[in-house]
Amino acid sequence: MFDAIYQLGDSISDTGNLIRENPNTPFSHLPYGQSFFNNPTGRCSNGLLMLDFLALDAGLPLVSPYLNKDALTNHGVNFAVAGSTALPSQYLSTKKILSPVTNSSLDHQLDWMFTHFNSICHNQRDCNEKLRNALFLVGEIGGNDYNYALFQGKTIQEVKDMVPNVVQTIKSAVEKVISYGATRVIVPGNFPVGCFPIYLTGFQINDTSAYDELHCLKALNSLASYHNDQIKQAIEELKKENPHTIIVYGDYYNAFLWILRHVFVLGFDEASLLKSCCGIG
């Protein structure tokens, strides 16, 4: 079992960093947070995030955002920022891709992490001891690099060309957290974004062959799979280079598809499914 969780990532795992950077973001208002906390906490959800369920399952307190300076940090810190990218926003802007939500990309979050460990560790040996039983999550991150590019008019091929750079950036981040003292790391992949309402609405097409049996856009899911295959390859390389570190792939892609295939068993009816899952709402 682990005794602390350290998270890097985006809106999938932000528990309140973005709303401290920018109090005017929609996530600082209801309905965000209404189902569990009864008030908005900065989570991009009406309830709990995957990170919260992990913490609860491990018997740990919910992981506090780094920018909440009053929070206890004995059981980990969350550096994730909603809207963040893997690649630095300055680099994306050279490719004419704007990062409209935050400049706190993965390198920025790693700087925060370094500052935090500098403040709690006397030296590397002390850090190794403190982090020996901690769990690190590096992502999910990179999804927004592709989201912004696609919605700003880049083609799927242009976005596919970004993948090796995004994956290399994530791999470098894993190497960095290992150098800080991480011994257990999860590196999640991307979701099947071709099943997401925002994509199904934004990239709707009259060609039925563009969709799979779950009414998801095949080309977008192929892009996500391409990213995930490269992430898995990077993990294999990292495992060879770091034989004493446990590094595992977080398969968000197939977990999401499992839910989509079992929607009726999970209590969704056809009307709500069409409205919320199929991009016609």
From TrEMBL:
Stored PANTHER family: GDSL-LIKE LIPASE_ACYLHYDROLASE FAMILY PROTEIN, EXPRESSED, ZINC FINGER FYVE DOMAIN CONTAINING PROTEIN
InterPro entries membership: GDSL, SGNH_hydro_sf, SGNH_plant_lipase-like
Keyword Signal: yes
The keyword Thylakoid is assigned to this record: no
Cited Gene3D superfamilies: SGNH hydrolase
Keywords noted in UniProt: Glycoprotein, Hydrolase, Signal
Family stated for the protein in its record: Belongs to the 'GDSL' lipolytic enzyme family.
Identification of the protein by name: Acetylajmalan esterase-like
Cross-referenced Pfam families: Lipase_GDSL
